User: Fold 3-hydroxyacyl-[acyl-carrier-protein] dehydratase from Terrimicrobium sacchariphilum.
Amino acid sequence: MDPVSLGLPHRDPFVFVDRVVDLQPGESARGEKVFSPDDPMFRGHFPGDPLVPGVILTEALAQMAGIAGGGDGRRFLLSAIRSMKFPSAARPTQIIALRARRTGAMGGLWMFDVSARVGEVVVAEGQVVLNEVTA
Assistant:
């Protein structure tokens, strides 16, 4: 499934979910991202040894959480990062599996456990809080 068609408000070049492979609206979502080695960020992070920046992995996971919470026209913005760890590195051309699962909600704030893996190796995990935007 295309993330933009599922309500992701971001557009190129700031879409960090290539496809959604499972969606339980309001509860959870799984998706994938593969970064091209030609992406300009790898010229500086790091020349000769490119790594996906942790902040980009965090944004990809926040986008995955927004997709999980979305549906029925709902839209979310990242409000807080409760914790985020990067126990291993992700590199260009690797398939990064993204997961987000809602763990709670209070008012317009939705909490998600998120993780990113390359194969069985965790490259990022933590909790994010999204704020539901009411137009």
Remarks:
- The helical segments are 54-69.
- The mean pLDDT is 95.
- The chain has one domain: 19-132.
- The first helix runs from residue 54 to 69.
